[in-house]
Amino acid sequence: MPDAEPRNLFEKFFATVSYMLDGPTVWVKEKIVEPNQKSYPWYHQKFRRVPTIDECYTDDVVCVFEADAQYRRDRQVESEILSILRERFESCTLYEAPDHMEKCTPLFREYENAATNWFIKYGDLGAYHNAKSAYMKQKHRMIWERRHGPVGSGKKTDTVDSTQE
């Protein structure tokens, strides 16, 4: 408690010496350094959200470029999230060695769900893909699900029986 009043001459002397040494550094930090600092470090830069590829006109090259750049950033972030989830599950299995199947199951389910969602969005696109190819994949998946039901559930059965007609 440096703001408390010193009780005796000894404490008053050391408080004065402390203020003499600490005062100029605090003044430089508060008056010079902090006002000139950026509000974020370089690795936490926040990009503004731009229109997605479906909101761009076909001849708007700048919009398509920005949508591709945002798509690459989003893919990189989601890949890193998936990597962190995988590392958490692996460290849990190492830490909980004999009983890891019971104790690490929620982490495994979360990782599997995230991996499935990542594959639905980015999987099977090839090496050189962009926002347009990912958008087309999403569109084709939605058409498939409308015609045949959810992927992996088997073929959709017809509701009208041909013998009743």
In N-to-C order, the SSE pattern is HHHHH
Count of discrete alpha- or pi-helical segments spanning 4 or more residues: 5
Largest sheet: none
Please give the domain count.
2
* Alpha-beta classification: mainly alpha
What is the strand content? Answer: under 5%
Average pLDDT over all residues = 86
Beginning-to-end CA distance, first to last residue: 90 Å
Fraction of residues in H or I helices: 55-70%
Rg from alpha-carbon coordinates: 29 Å
Number of β-strand runs: 0
Overall geometry comes to elongated
Regions with little confidence, pLDDT below 50 for 5+ residues:
none
Q: Layout of SSEs?
A:
Elements: H1 9-36, H2 61-95, H3 100-103, H4 105-122, H5 131-148
Describe the structure.
The protein folds into two domains: 9-37, no CATH class; 53-148. The protein is mostly helical. The protein has helices at 9-36, 61-95, 100-103, 105-122, 131-148. The chain is built from five helices and no strands. Belongs to the complex I NDUFB10 subunit family. It is a peripheral membrane protein. Keywords: Electron transport, Membrane, Mitochondrion, Mitochondrion inner membrane, Respiratory chain, Transport. InterPro entries: NADH_UbQ_OxRdtase_su10 (IPR019377), NDUFB10 (IPR039993).
